[in-house]
Queue: 2 jobs
Job 1
Amino acid sequence: MKQETSTLEIDDPFSNTLPAYTLVNLRINGQTHKLRLQPWVSLLDAIREYIGLTGTKKGCDHGQCGACTVLVDGKRINSCLTLAIMKDGAEITTIEGLADGEANHPLQDAFIEHDAFQCGYCTPGQICSAVGMFNEGRAHTLEDVKELMSGNICRCGAYTNINAAIMEVKAKLENE
Amino acid sequence: MTTKYIGKPASRVDGLEKVTGKARYSADFKVEGLTYGFIVSSSIAKGKITSIDSSRALALEGVLQVFTHENVRNLPWFKLRYTDMDAPSGTPFRPFYDNTIRFSMQPVALVIAETFELARYASSLIKVEYDKETYTTSLYKNLSKSFKAPKGKIGYVPPKSRGNADAAYQDAAFKIQAEYKHSAEHHNPMELFSTTAIWDNEKLTVYDKTQGVSNCQFYIGNIFGLAYKDVRIISPYVGGAFGSGLRPQHQLFMAVLAALELKRPVKVGLTRQQMFSFGHRPATLQKLALSASPEGTLESVRHEAYSETSQFENYTEVIVNWSATMYACENVELKYELVKLDTFTPLDMRAPGAVTGVHAMESAMDELAFELKMDPLIFRLKNYTDEDQVNEKPFSSKELVACYREGAEKFGWAARNVEPRSMRDGKNLVGWGVATAAWDANQMPSRAKALLSIDGKLVVSSGTSDIGTGTYTIMTQIAAEILGIAIENVTFKLGDTNLPLAPLEGGSWTAASVGSAVKTVCEDVRKILLKHAVKTKASPFYQYDSTKLQIDSGEIFDPNDSSKGVSVTEIMRLAGVNSIEETSTSGPNPLVGRKYTMNSHAAVFAEVKVDEDLGTVDVTRVVCAVAAGKILNPKTARSQILGGVVWGISKALEEESKLDHQYGRFMNHNLSEYHVPVNKDINDIEVIFVEEKDDVVNPLGVKGVGEIGIIGVAGAIANAVFHATGVRVRNLPITMDKVLQIAEDDRNQVAV
Ligand code: FES
Ligand code: FES
């Protein structure tokens, strides 16, 4: 195969031209939001700053804490590690979309009952993550839950209560 | 149903908002026309900025301004204006004051742009040139320059020695001496620090992450020359703080500066990395020497601590004093010195000082118990005291013995063999350790307001904060019970400078301080209601003796005469009042403080399993038995203790802000390299609240539970690791390389 050589000007990457705007359709909690976004906008910032759904939290912006966890087509992801334009048309669920009408998601009630938070900042991420974990169907025991929920840091240290809430809902869902 | 709520395990009143994403934290406020700020941090630790070139950033469409020391000029730079309520002595850091760099990652420029992404990108285009100067960030290399810690910071009490510790040590039959090292730690609340500032109609509204809205109000008013009444700070929800919100942080100054200058709303946040550029728990070196008689009587305690501070402020905390009050001992020698380094000033972090000092003291106690071949719990009981020997006063209450007893029972301590390496579970060595903890039960002056409306709804408020502590919930419980109405009819408001003045939210004093104010103001409203009941002609209790009446479930009644009754709302209607509003102040009783020392206590028991080949430590069980007076809400209080224990496990095994002295910078400044426990790291934690009645500490009999849960944990774990392995790791965190005694830069372990 013939090798192609090219010279690239790399000593000055500066340009006054900013990334162009693109039309993006974000479907969040069943509602479509038509946005004009630059491609450098993360899904997290799109949800929080451009759409105004601030239930999803930013704890690091680097995929290290789980506070920004949302569900995309039922799968849990760190929305800070995803660009909004990559999720055009996907079904996104945030903490604001978990309730069924007036009725809370059972995890939401169980978190209150078990006091599975203190400051509450990690909570939307914990709950979305737990829903995603249920969808994965890999968590069978408490040890599994501890392992599979370890991507969501709770600095307040509510882990034992978080696990109690999750185990209770897990048992309930399995009995249904 | 009666309206008795105090002491009941009510679920958090703010729980629904927290689980539905409706709770608004500092960065969650939507504002029309919002602009975004991004801070540029210095790349060096010390020196001078020789030039800043912002031209490329400013050339981008949508970049509104770049602030640097060169164009921020018209501020009053007197140091007093920057002194906040939690400032130690010295000169507080003044952003953009001059071209001097005092610590690594110092804010050197602030970019404001129409979007967050643009501000962040533009910040990368700002060129800063420096003249570097030599700096020093190692505590241990600068010990020869240590000096006596000065007074000046809120809560700091200099240590007091007694007797002759050196002579007693010389003569004693059993003795140990050891050095313990702690590295710096950062609070790392989950919520990133953020401020949104809005300048509208000559008034400033600020949404901030803080543990004291009034502290921020005064700080901003003083610096920017605004009347306090024109500065409103709002902070209804705080995503954890642990002390990091006690002082105003960089982004508050930045957001206000830009909003005033540009006349546009501005949001400025710190990145996780930048949250390693403000206060931290200081690195320390502690030297201890203890001695005892053959019977196990503690004969001398010598405790010295050397702690870092910045070049510009003298941060102090109470590290060694605990060693003079925890056990009976005639001879105690204490010393506490500071060493100035080119880092930012340390900052109170959950149980400041106590966590550090008590870990060292409780490890040393374990070392001495081992010398004596004595059970470490029996050794502690033998040296138990009901008197504060420093101030020669009794404790107002001290149910520590009950903590030891109930904790030991639950844990199964009696089955413990004193010999190290005596228990095993497969390839794991098993160890059990115990430690004691104590913390101050303080009360601060506080104000609260109550407004009872004709519809029977009560709104109580105070400008305190709830950082996850349960303040919203316990205040609602107190108000509902004292007034005698259903809890559903009570709303508690906090985190707003429009509300009555409350102290900083810290030191475990909020329940006692704000709680007492809420109690007082609700008693006042109750008195007014009862007055209406006996003074209103149409009332069934007209001309009654009001002291005979009670209120429960919103009904006014006479317990001795069930034939009559009238509801609270009806009596207001009959009396022709639409609402009752009262504001009251409550503060500590100075007489009580003169007579008693007031502390909360705890006994912590820990089990560890240590992989013999790998040296990894797993904390499999912790029992934390706490004596903290009246527990207002066992559910939220238990969570506070659980959190404290998790923090203790973290301190013992994980947390460490690593300074690279070549750069003078904390290198692991993110959540993947700064380790805090994840779900998998935490196992069984048992919390016990022992019965403790205290009628003098404050009107509610509470001592606070925010800090007592963490203090003894690292000591108990370190002692358990020794019991499991026979290796005494004296420097925290206890990592696998230290357990195996192969840590290259750390030889401070001994094996038996
Ligand atoms: S904010 Fe996305 S993982 Fe931390
Ligand atoms: S509840 Fe505060 S971080 Fe989890």
Job 2
Amino acid sequence: MIIGSQKPIEEIWEMVRDFRKVLVFGCNTCVAICHAGGEKEAETIASLIRMRAQQEGKEMEVNHLGVMRHCEPEYFDPVMDEVKKYDLILSTACGVGVNFLSDRTGNIPVYPGINTSFYGAVEAPGNFVELCSGCGNCILHMTGGICPIARCSKTLMNGPCGGTNNGKCEVSKDVDCAWFLIVERMKQLGTLEKLSEVLPPRNWSTSRDGGPRRVSLEHIRAYEEQESQKAATAGGKK
Amino acid sequence: MAQEKIEEAPKPYRPYGAEIKETRPYSPCRAACPAHTDVQAYVGLIAQGRYHEAFEVITAPNPIASVCSMICHHPCEQSCRRCTIDEPLAVRHLKRFAIEKSLDYRRARRRLVEKTKGKSIGIIGSGPSGLTAARDLADFGYSVSIYERHPVLGGMLASAIPPYRLPREMLKEDIDDVISKGIEVKTNCEIGRDVKIDDLAKQHDAVLIAIGLSLSRSLPIPGVKGPGVLLAIPFLEDVAFDRKPSLGKKVLVIGGGNVAMDVARTARRLGVKDVSMVCLESAEEMPAWKWEVDEALEESIKINHRWGPKAVRREGDKVKGLEVVKVKSVFDANGRFNPSFDNDQTSLLEADTIIITIGQMSDVSFLKGSAVKLDERGRVEWDPATQMSSAKGVFVSGEVVTGPGSAIAAVANGHRAALAIHLYCQGEAIEGRLPVQEKEKIEQMPAQVVDKINKEPRLKIKHLAPELRCDSMVHFEIGYDEEEALKEAGRCRGCGGGAVVDQKKCMACLTCMRICPYGAPVVTSVSEIRPEYCQACGLCAPECPGEAISMVSYDVKEIRRTLPQTVGKIEPKRQEPVIAAFMCTHHVGVLGFDLPKNVRTIPVHCTSRIDVLDLLKAVEAGADGVAVVRCGDGTCKYRDVARRVEARVKRGQELLKMLGFDPGRIEILSASSGNGGNPYATVCADFSGRIKQMGLRGTK
Ligand SMILES: Cc1cc2nc3c(=O)[nH]c(=O)nc-3n(C[C@H](O)[C@H](O)[C@H](O)COP(=O)(O)OP(=O)(O)OC[C@H]3O[C@@H](n4cnc5c(N)ncnc54)[C@H](O)[C@@H]3O)c2cc1C
Ligand code: SF4
Ligand code: SF4
Ligand code: SF4
Ligand code: SF4
């Protein structure tokens, strides 16, 4: 899922200080699970902003709200009338949610309440770790299920660099060397010989290099109303 | 009474969560109570020092709550889930405590109820069943008249249960609660003798027969007729109405049930030193409650087991004793009561007076020839689905139709009858509308949960020593003091008052499953919290990032909502810092709530329920300092709480730091709760001092 982390209150304050009515708008899926931007955290941020405003002697109305997801219109449409009563929406969804919502609020700005960090897993309660970069062309079958793009500090594709050191990366002794992990794992799987195959240079156009990406499912796209909604997303015109 | 103001009937008090509890399995204590008293709610309120609310919960389903607090056989305790850990909660005794704490409160809240229905109901008999129906019907807005053949109201409670178990002042408070609603009372009025039943039926829109079982059964044995042989109920009535029966030096009571115990122990208190009992059953088979038997033995009453009465032996008129025959067996192969005797083994039990206590029946002679039909065995014909007799508009309730049971069972049946009468008077169908008695209940505590709960023995209920109590009718049981009551109430595991997931909000993040010390939540596509595991500690709700968890027994957002009022107006020129103190009420915590005015207390059943947002809200409301005050001496009722609370406080401190506050404005304080005095005063005063050093917010 998408992992986010909260922004320092000072940064938030700089964003919101000139608005009179602010809605901190939480998203109750990924960013709620990582305790960054669910409705609950939205309420916390709202409380902090109110106190900050008080410290500055500023008149400000700050409320909070939350919906299941900011990345599907069905979830926020029902509260849109309410949302539009504000001068500023501080969305605590991931960047996807902020973009998506911002395209649908007319002249009301949507600002990010959190930093969108990465795609990650819950390693242990309260510990989130990046494991995938969303490159658009998965090769995990070739690398023992360990992604060298996300987990190798240099995104090396054919084995470690000279900086590998007893399983650790030269970048920091707290970072595992992804290639060390790949070799150990493939040994265990008995597929080490696969590594003798040299991976050809990658086509990065499926990643960021090809511009904003889109996945279209023909079998599901058939719904007319979805088509019309899609038109509203910037960069996503038919 | 005429000048008393008529006010709207008070709405029955509903504790928080009452509605949701109806949709879920009951706590076993509640399911076992015939009136379904919400034990978990009131014990929880007592534990928080909220005695008047506890009183409301107790009396909502039970108009004779003071009585029950002394004499109920408490099926709630027998089914308490704490039994699998150590011993059941002393539910009945806690009830007594809450009621004793609410005497002025209850007197002040008595109100005349407006008679809005324009119909009148006549109730024959003022026992638990009749009184209950009277209260309900008055609350519905009917004019109610009670007809009672005795000079006082209360049925067996007034006329038979001996005062050493039930002081009459307590009964009077219950009766006054009911009567104050504006009920017409006709004592010394026996239906059949003073008013004919058919005339009564004409006077009222509906009639309720709640006459109980007022006749004692006798024994068909030689010598039974004549002086020196008494029947239980007339004997107890004589005692109750101060007509001292003369008993001689030796009394023998026939019977092994609870009434027999009352009779023997009453005889003992009338100055008879030599009281013995004889019954068919062995000690194990005896129908009397074990505690009754133990208390009787303490009072040096002898019990002759497994003997059957054969004949009363007399010398002239005077009773000499009872000839008895050895019992071979009491029950037959099918487990039915069918005693068999060994006629070769007999004995003579000497006595001056013999009191027969082998059961009761009702006196329905006044119904003969009326529209109310009797069956071939002389019992009132009735339909349990409608509580109606064969005569239209004439209803029945209580022991006259259910047979012998308990006072609280008669109460439950009285509620049914009242509802039936109300439906009838409103021209509605009754069948299918009366409440069902059996309720689904939470299962016993799983072994892995039992292992995680500290053993804590029940607080002993003290009695007057036998040598003191046998001399008079004085009440022999001593109530809990406040400290005892708080400790005992703190033992309750809060069954059914725990966590519930709003499945629309849950995003299956697994936090609750990871955090719960008792393994209650199971998360599949959404979380489900299993009530048989949940201890209602409240730890999970503040951790749920989706705010999907609520608690049945309290509103998790209430503190946040009410904090601005709790903190109150902040005086800009104040000298003392305003402290918002979240205080654990557990154990005897409430005794420490008497604090200087600048400390605004927020009671919590456990610090586990405090949310980061609650801490922030206190600062937002203007508090100079926020304290989380917990007991520091290991009386803690739940597990793994301290660590989580510390983490939340730390988070609150970090957030405050971001705003430029001194993080020390939020602190955890530990206080020792034992040894009298105010456990919280010192730690709060010290904290106040530290906050003063930091400066008062918004002042120079
Ligand atoms: C000695 C004794 C001890 C008990 N101890 C306990 C105990 O410890 N705990 C417990 O839970 N239960 C106890 N019980 C049982 C409890 O008292 C009964 O369950 C309860 O009183 C039944 O209530 P009721 O309303 O059906 O009838 P009752 O209480 O019997 O009330 C019926 C009333 O109707 C009146 N009446 C009868 N006929 C007429 C008439 N024709 N006209 C006018 N009035 C009439 C009677 O005088 C009586 O007042 C005890 C009972 C006895 C006898
Ligand atoms: S522990 Fe409390 S709630 Fe649970 S059964 Fe016993 S008295 Fe009832
Ligand atoms: S903590 Fe809340 S959102 Fe997460 S699984 Fe439990 S109930 Fe669902
Ligand atoms: S944490 Fe406490 S309240 Fe929550 S489910 Fe577990 S026992 Fe129940
Ligand atoms: S000691 Fe702590 S955890 Fe225990 S009951 Fe008190 S506040 Fe709750």
